[in-house]
Amino acid sequence: MPKIDFNGISKTFGSNTVIRRFNASVEDGEFLVLLGPSGCGKSTLLRMIAGLSEITGGELLFDGQLANDWTPKQRGVAFVFQSYALYPHMTVRANIAFPLVMDQFRKWHHIPLVNLFHRWQVMHRPEVKEAVEKIAAQLELTPLLDRRPASLSGGQRQRVALARSLVRDPSLYLLDEPLSNLDAKLRTQMRSEITTLHQKVKKTFVYVTHDQVEAMTMATRIVVMNGGHIQQIGTPDEIYDAPANTFVARFVGAPPMNLIPVHITGKTLTAQGATWEHHAGSPSGATSAIFGLRPEKLVLKPVGAGRMKARVAVIERLGAETILGCRLGGGETEGINTEDLIFVRMPGHPGFDWGDDCSLDYADADACWFDKPTGHRLPAVPTPASAVA
Predict the structure, then answer these.
(1) 4-247 falls under which CATH superfamily?
(2) How many CB atoms lie within 10 A of CB 145?
(3) Backbone angles phi, psi at 387, to 5 degrees
(4) Dist. CA 168–CA 159, nearest whole Å
(5) Which of 12, 15, 49 is nearest to 223 (CA)?
(6) Cis peptide leading into 384, omega within 30 of 0?
(7) pLDDT band for position 388 (50/70/90)?
(8) Are the beta carbons of 68 and 60 closer than 8 angstroms?
(9) For residue 169, what pLDDT is reported?
(10) If 0-12 CB within 10 Å is exposed, 13-18 middle and 19+ buried, where does residue 157 land?
(11) Which strands, in side-by-side order, build the sheet including 274-277?
(12) Lowest mean pLDDT among 93-97, 257-261, 382-386
């Protein structure tokens, strides 16, 4: 299993630079997720790892060896495409066996009759049949081996695409948004199957997605990207609990972190007509900043019971939990932009209706601070105990 190092990797298409000096490492056996919006360079980076796209600048190292000019076969990778890329005229069995057939391919096999004989011969080798049947059983595809892709469901096709990649026992698995074409139920099922697969084979996975749920539930580490730049690298918990900047705070989480521009006067914070006390300290010397709180860290309370005065403007009941959008300061709830709302996520039914006055509270330790001009996270300077008292 190779350790992969990216040393200043960049990629340009003409005058358009899509990846800018990318520096990161992928450790043996980890499940690394490249997370970001469409067009941020995730899939391009994956194709450069696979050898399907040329590297414009920097070094790609496999176990310390420069791999910029290696062929895909030399890299020993398996690539799972977003579109499955199955051969419609072949059975499931033939699709899964195809990489093993191609490993034995020679120039003269381009001759049509020779090609047919070669494929038939390799397909019927005991070791090939055993490998196909083993991986088919692992992914519950055995009853489907003699069917063609057109007769399969989306989830079954995705499993065939995975089986085709696994059958060669590669050292590195590359997956490019493999679940984006599936419905919500199948995505949940396939997330579990891919995670279980990673735990079984104990190989390195690099997975591209724009879906934060996939990233948070599957990754051992996440690289958050935007505009060809790395925004943050960390475990799912680090990304969620300690976002490096406002982009990460907004991109990860549903609803995203509440980011409130506040004016700071000592321990007093003011925003959108609301004033409240924050005792745990604020950024050193700052008179204004962006105050961040995750929706589940806020508590909805009756008027006067919490420190932030508010009014309920949006209610979304999701069964086991409810998401409420509140207007700070208790202002008008009609015709407002949802970006101005403070969202609260709580279990069950909140007991509040649209237009009700309320208050919000939180634990001081759950707050994050960000610089207004740059969006970078700021450390808070704790308030001395004597000052809090």
Answers:
(1) P-loop containing nucleotide triphosphate hydrolases (3.40.50.300)
(2) 18
(3) -70, -35
(4) 15
(5) 49
(6) no
(7) very low
(8) yes
(9) 76
(10) buried
(11) 274-277, 268-271, 258-265, 288-293, 368-370, 377-378
(12) 382-386
Take residue 389 and report the two structure tokens written for it: 């008292």
Token representation of residue 38: 């469409």
Report pLDDT for 187. 83
pLDDT of residue 275: 92
Alpha carbon dihedral 197, 200, 203, 208, in 10-degree steps, equals 20
Residue 105's pLDDT band, with cuts at 50, 70 and 90, is: low
What tokens does 236 get? Answer: 């799912």
Across 327-353, average pLDDT = 80
- The CATH number fitting domain 254-388, selected from 2.40.50.140, 3.10.450.350, 3.40.50.300, 3.20.20.70: 2.40.50.140
Confirm if 218 and 191 have CB atoms less than 8 A apart.
yes
User: Residues spanned by CATH 3.40.50.300 within the chain?
Assistant: 4-247
Residues 12-60 pLDDT 10s: 998 888 998 999 999 989 999 999 998 899 999 999 999 999 999 999 9
For strand 4-13 and strand 57-62, is the pairing parallel, antiparallel, or unpaired? Answer: antiparallel
End-to-end C-alpha distance for the chain, whole angstroms? 56
Query: Which pLDDT does position 387 carry in this prediction?
Result: 46
Q: Quick one: pLDDT at residue 332?
A: 64
pLDDT for the residue numbered 340: 81
Tokens, residue 89: 């005229």
Q: Which two tokens stand for residue 69?
A: 């000019």
